[in-house]
Amino acid sequence: MCRRQGLADEEYALDDEDEDEHVEGDEDEEPLLVTRAHKHTNGNGAVPSYGYRDLFGKEAEMRRRQLIEVKMLRAETDLQFPGCVEIIPQLQHELRLLYEETKDLRSQEDDTNHRSQDAHGDGGVNGSSELVQQVATLQKQLAARDAKLREAESEAARLRARLADTGGNRESSSDELQELEYQLKELKVTLAAKDKELATLRAKAGSTGGAESNAQLAKQRDDAVQARELLQQQLAQARAEVTAAEANFRAQQEALSASTESEQAKALQKQLWALTEQHNKRVAELEAEMRQQKVLIKQLQTTKSDMMQDMKTKVEAVKAESAAAYKASLKTVQAQLDELHALREGVLEELLHFQSECLSEKTITQMTRVVRDKDILRVRQAQQDLRKQLADFDARLKESQEEVQTVRAEAAQTIRIKELEAAGQISHFREKWRVEFDKRRKLHNTVLELKGNIRVLCRVRPLLEKERSVTANGGEMPVKAMSEEVLRVAAVDNKAEKEFEFDRVLAPDEGQDKLYDEVAALVTSVLDGFNVAIMAYGQTGSGKTYTMEGPEGNPGVNLRALGDLFRIAEERASAFTTTFSASVLEIYNEQIYDLLMSGAQDGDKLDVKQGPEGMYVPGLKLEEVKDMADVTAMIGRGKSNRSTYATNMNEHSSRSHLVLSVYVNSVNKLNGNILRGKLHLIDLAGSERLSRTGAQGDRLKEAQAINKSLSALGDVIQALQQRNAHIPYRNSKLTRLLEDSLGGNSKCVMIVNVSPATENVSETKCSLEFASRARKVELGRARANVVSTEGGNGNGSGSGGGATGASPIPPRSGRATPAGEGTMSRVGSREAMSTPVGRRSTGASSLGR
Ligand SMILES: Nc1ncnc2c1ncn2[C@@H]1O[C@H](COP(=O)(O)OP(=O)(O)OP(=O)(O)O)[C@@H](O)[C@H]1O
């Protein structure tokens, strides 16, 4: 609450209790001091208190209430018109000052009147002029004050009018405001005096006490009331006097202005007018200012109301908008809230679930952590232990390594010594074994020679490139050399595994030289006058040609044999004069073709005949060969002639028998005896069965022919094996040609070539069976063909053979035998062979040894 200027704080301090009493009390009642004193006196007889009404009466109280109302109105008005209310106190202050001045002037006027009356009573002229002067001054001052008063009143009137706009009873209240305030001031002064008296009375009452003092107080009160009434009367009288003085003054003024027109008065009048004008001007200015203020206030009010209206509208709009937005957002928020609720529910559920899981997981984690920590500790401890152990181990390892090195060095030395010893022993034993083996072989060979067995060598070729993938996939090869004499064929096509024994089994990795070593002795026995046949048997592609001819740079039996013969002949050239001749023929479809004869041949004309020195082919060309160059040229020509008439060389070669024959004529320079030997080197046709070839027509005929000659060979071998009286040599040209090589006066070697491939196992087995049968054949002890210079032919050829058609071998009768060798003998074979120059000292061949 704001404080109002010119109003004391106590003016606001309303006694509520008094007010209540006023409402309830009877206005016509006598002053209620006693009653109220009783009422306010406590039981102990405490000093009573007095209300406003008790002290100042009903009228004063009413005015006071009006004043309070006015103040409240002012406060309200101030709320509504802040500017106006602020002006009011200023105006009131000015008004009060004016009243004070007016009062002073009146009192001065009274004094002047008294003195004027006194002066009139004296009746002097000087007094009159002085009085007139004083009156004029006073009038002037009074007029000024009156003007100011009017101004203030008009100001107050305007304010009242403004306040009247606020309506109601405020107008009347504002009218009385000044007067009330003035009276209030007077009353305040009186009240102060009364309070003093009251305080004195209270002090007295306090000292006397009891009912007695109450009576005194009541008396004093009555006195005070009387005094107050007196004062009121005096006031009313004073007012009446003022009014009378005013009326008197106005009357005197009128009288003066009407009767006296002195210069002084005129001057004063002028001054008065000037002052009045000045005053009016000032009033006009103030009024203008006031109007401006009013306009400003109005404008402000208008602006304010407009603004208020605008604000109101805006507020309404904003309210509406906000309400709509609020509703919308409320809706959204509600929806979101619903969602959130749902989500919360879900989350809560999950949370509960998770919490339970977490709790268990947490427990597990904690437990795991504890276990893990323990494990880590254990592991760390174990690591430390292990490190220690490792260090110990390293140290021990180092020691051990050093020991090991020492031991190794010692061992290496020992091993070296032992190896040397062993090597010595091995070579010793090997030598021993070799000697023993040779002995055994010799004995075996002697047995064989005595028996005249066909010696059978088995050669297993390596796998061809095209066969590698097939056979190698299966793992081990089905045909395997188990030892130097045993070959094993694995079980294939429901046929049991089988082992074959031969005079020698050559494994795939054993080369041409090894094979030749096995036949070398037989080859060289030709120089001793023996008939030797070396034939390669086996299915097509089993390695027959490879074995007999051999590829370039790795010659087979043919070239090696001839080379050997030339070399040995050379070696014993001092004792023997040796000559060599050779022929190359082919038996194809049971026809003999001379491959050394170029041009067209009539196969029917070549046939095999039996001469005095054995089987021969009349008309077959024999060429003398002196060295390997002659042999190579001759073989080359034979191949060339073979390819001339053969349309398909490869097929042809597989289906024909190729026979290279070497005839040796050795004349003993000492006795003139002649040793005639014959070497057949035969590359037989493929031995596969007809069913396997699937041949038809000419091919079938061809196959049958091949089959016929090989069958005939088989028959001959079987007959020989069974020691039949009749040996069917004549069944084929081949067997007929080999009659003196497969008979009793010859040495025969069959090399059975086999393929190691799985796909050929069946044929391989057939070949091996055939060779096994051949091995059982006993031809009887071989005998050398020796033509003795004594007594003509000597023993000559047991088979009644003679030299082949164009044979360079000298006729049996052609030469005389040395002393003591009068006849040609087929008996003294071994002995005859063991001539000083006839045998190789190396004895490389197992069969020859
Ligand atoms: N011991 C071996 N070492 C290396 N290769 C060999 C051996 N034997 C045979 N061969 C190879 O096998 C293949 C067949 O050999 P080869 O021609 O000698 O058989 P074949 O029995 O004579 O056949 P055909 O009856 O058709 O004349 C050839 O390529 C040959 O080089």
UniProtKB/TrEMBL annotation:
Signal peptide boundaries: none
Coiled-coil spans in chain: 135-303, 383-410
UniProt keyword Cell inner membrane, yes or no: no
Keywords linked to the UniProt accession: ATP-binding, Coiled coil, Microtubule, Motor protein, Nucleotide-binding
GO (cellular component) term, any one: microtubule
Residues annotated as domain Kinesin motor: 453-777
Biased composition (Gly residues): 791-804
GO MF, one example: ATP binding
Residues that bind ATP: G538, Q539, T540, G541, S542, G543, K544, T545
Acidic residues bias locations: 8-28
Chain intervals for the UniProt region annotation (Disordered): 1-28, 105-127, 785-849
A biological process term (GO) from this entry: microtubule-based movement
Pfam annotation, one family: Kinesin
Keyword ATP-binding applies: yes
Regions of compositional bias (Basic and acidic residues) in chain numbering: 105-121
Family affiliation: Belongs to the TRAFAC class myosin-kinesin ATPase superfamily. Kinesin family.
Annotated protein name in UniProt: Kinesin-like protein
Species of the source: Gonium pectorale (Green alga)
